DNA sequence: ACAACTCAGAGGGCTTACAA
DNA sequence: TTGTAAGCCCTCTGAGTTGT
């Protein structure tokens, strides 16, 4: 019986040994050949990448030979598999598209064709994520998070630095904008006194003219203004498209009209040639291919119309401070934000992104200029905000009365795309669907985004932390041990054990030193059978002799100048895990050694 | 009493250093 | 260039401890 068990054990052990060796050999072959191929491919211009982003080796390299085992092709990294991002396997089905590994970000000027080619690029050879997708996602995130240009640049630099080389991420935000076809500065940050509209320096804590203290974080105010501004942009775009605003004749018009739309209580400023017909004090305009009748409240220059609109809004808003309270009340009244509303906000931003980043810039320069001015114009911003608040305030008194929105006019060719982008949510108003803006939904959405970002960043930092810790632990001269040191602490010059100075043992780091000490202080059998002191009764293995282990503590602390105060922490956090692993591995080694000896003996016996 | 948490052992897999 | 050994990391499991 005993012999049968022993034979089985030996067979299992030898099988494991063979398996292990086979695996190691296969692994080394794969990675060596892969590394060579990678280097060669990257160094040569004839490297290619498939549609899925995988490197394709030059014809001289037989990928089948290089990779005896076909494994899964790389996919876009997810949050859960970041630890496996270094695993790079290539499937031989990915042999197609040429890869342009030239770092286009080096060049500031691009031709249109080269831009298109670059946009189709992957972020780097080891991912399926395209540069275009990343750029859009990144810009979207920056906008959602209200990240400043400076910080955006910092994030971009960080991402570029941590990605594998070569990668196609632009070096700065300007290049990233250009890569997306955005050649204008879309947003200039200004601090404006809400009371007198005076530009205020960022160093001021109060408006120099009216003395109002600047409050840096009026969240509800900001959220309301963002929503209102979006709507204003959309309406302007609608008006532009529906009335042929983009053509040169429209731009050349110097006569503007301030129009009031009674159906949704909105005010728009339109050039004269965008108005289809005048009937007394009414104007007929085409919006969304529908005739809309508006009351002309003013006519003249653009600035005049803006001023009058502002005054109209000021009249409506006699007590500015009531607005925030009203919005809060509105929040309470509409406490349960519907999914549709949240979905609208998301889609609304999507559409606006597209609008700002692509459509606007494709219009003629003067139109672009004007649209951008509108975006950056604080007066527009504030006036829209007030209009929006007034609108909300009116909603308080009649919650059943819907806020109608003007749907952006889309051409026939684009109508389907527009529907797709809007996702068929409350944002589409073909059927006059009603829309209510609930700031609570905005806040919850912002919170959700913030939490998601925080979680992602935390995971990344944890990952980096582990890597960094691992690197620093391997560095003998690193400063991480400084945490466990105290100034002016004296140490003995020798730690004698059996007439041998343990400090004279050379090691590359404290882990190595600890292992060497264990080998010095204990026999192989002890290392194979025992666990670290102080063991517990519940462990079947006995602890190593504690008296000798004290020599180890003393030698390590002395050699690395570790303070008595912090040594226990150093030991438990840094050294102990290494020694525990060492004992574990030592057991593995000795078991393997024994099994090999037994196999050899049994083979000798069988042959004799 | 039970769940949640902590700690240590064990095993498998991956990386790196080194020698043949 | 290749194979091997050692170290390290990760995960699972079991047992004890702690808090409710």
TrEMBL record:
Sequence segments annotated as region (Disordered):
371-438
Tell me the protein's name. BEN domain-containing protein
Write down the superkingdom of origin.
Answer: Eukaryota
Which GO terms fall under molecular function for this chain's record?
DNA binding
Q: Which organism is it from?
A: Rotaria sordida
Q: Domain named BEN: which ranges?
A: 486-590
Which intervals carry biased composition (Polar residues)?
Answer: 371-383, 422-438
Instruction: Please note every region of biased composition (Basic residues).
Output: 385-394
